[in-house]
Specification:
Length: 290
């Protein structure tokens, strides 16, 4: 049977739509153009005492997003970066571009908290993994992936590894807490996280805490560690300090939700970079070699 031109076109469109639905928004592919050169003054190679955190935003994907995300990370080339709202397939693509386009080789550990077709695509019988990921230029050991007893409206957890930063071993945590209007849930999550962080004399806690610095649920974290932003601290009684203008915002809606908490380590510099590829900004910190 010979199909008319219109019938062939309709069949082609139907096949393309079906394939897109089957693979989902995070399916691997190399159709986008090359990521292109880095801006002037970019790191060029991994910075051994630099750590970063970035909520990738999901769903915020699109053609070329993983190229763009890789370019953002390559521009700062941290020794370690914690990613939240990360689909395994997206991270695989980002790692590949970091190595193939920019010559930056990272190991990866995943802290998957759910497998979700709507979030991460994949065939219905193999939906993509969603949660946290840690990329490190050095090997990682003693991986622990913990789901909080109460995730709130969506499963949440933390991922922890031991790796090298500035040439010294350190325990690195990466977490994503419950959504903004779920302060009571976050309080329980912080208790779980802080109890584990307290076991380590040297620790770096990266993540999207979905809470501003003066939120009461962050109290246990402030008792253990300081944020890399030296001007940003929780408010003391009656002072108002630390709960507004002093804190560099890390989101498109002008709130600070993203943190690099340091325990037994001091920061040297930090920077926040807005990105067209997420509603969260990439936050990095250069650390002193204490």
């Amino acid at each position: 049977m010979v199909l008319s031109r219109g019938a062939r076109w309709a069949a082609g469109v139907t096949a393309a739509v079906c394939m897109a639905l089957l693979l989902g928004p995070s399916a691997p592919g190399r159709a986008a153009p090359p990521a292109g050169p880095l801006r002037f003054g970019a790191a060029g190679e991994v910075v051994p005492d630099r750590v970063a955190t970035w909520n990738l935003c999901n769903p915020c994907g699109g053609l070329g997003h993983d190229f763009g995300r890789a370019k953002e990370i390559a521009g700062y080339a941290p020794q370690v970066i914690g990613l939240q709202e990360a689909c395994v397939r997206d991270v695989e693509q980002i790692r590949a571009y970091l190595e193939e386009v920019y010559g930056l080789v990272y190991r990866v550990e995943y802290g998957t908290v759910l497998r979700n077709w709507n979030r991460c695509g994949g065939p219905p019988w193999r939906p993509g993994g969603f949660g946290q990921a840690i990329l490190s230029a050095a090997p990682m050991t003693d991986r622990v992936n913990v789901e909080y007893p109460d995730g709130g409206s969506e499963d949440r957890g933390y991922l922890a590894v031991t790796t090298l930063v500035g040439g010294r071993p350190v325990r690195v945590f990466n977490t994503h807490l419950a959504e903004r209007r779920q302060g009571g849930v976050r309080a329980g999550q912080v208790e779980v996280l802080a109890a584990e962080v307290a076991r380590h004399d040297r620790a770096i806690v990266l993540g999207d805490f979905n809470a501003v610095p003066h939120a009461p649920e962050l109290g246990p974290m402030w008792a253990l560690a300081l944020d890399t932003d030296p001007a940003c601290r929780p408010a003391t009684a009656g002072s108002g300090a630390g709960d507004g203008d002093a804190c560099t915002v890390t989101t498109d809606w002008n709130s600070k939700f993203d943190y690099v908490f340091l325990r037994g380590i001091t920061p040297r510099t930090h920077r926040v970079r807005p990105s067209p590829y997420s509603d969260h900004h990439l936050l990095y910190s250069d650390l002193n070699r204490d």
